[in-house]
Amino acid sequence: MDEVINRLRQFRDERDWKQFHNPKDLALALSIESSELLEAFLWKSADEADIEKVKEELADVFAFAFLMADACDLDVKQIVMAKIEKNEEKYPVEKARGTAKKYTEL
Fold first, then answer.
1. Is 63 exposed, middle or buried (0-12, 13-18, 19+ CB in 10 A)?
2. Mind listing the pLDDT tens digit for each residue in 80-98?
C-alpha cells in the first residue's frame, strides 16, 4: 500500500498538483471516477463490460481514494479493517448469509 501511495504522491508532486488535491476536490474526483466505472456497465450485462475499461476506471477510483486517505492522514489498512469489523457486527453471519437485506431489515 505504501508503495502505491508513494508513487501516486510522486506523480502528483512532479506535476505540482497537490494544490488541487484537498479532501473536497478529491472526494469530487472520486465520485466522478466512480461514475465513469459505472459507465463501463451501462446498457450491458456484467460480462459484456470491457474489462480494460473497468480496470482503467477502477484504478482511477483507487488512486483518488488513496490520495484522499493520504490528504486526510488516514491509514488505509486501519480504516478498512475497522469498517470490516463494524460490518461484522451489523451483519452477523447467522442473519445475513445469503441475503442482500440491509442490516436494519435482518
1. buried
2. 999 999 999 999 999 999 9
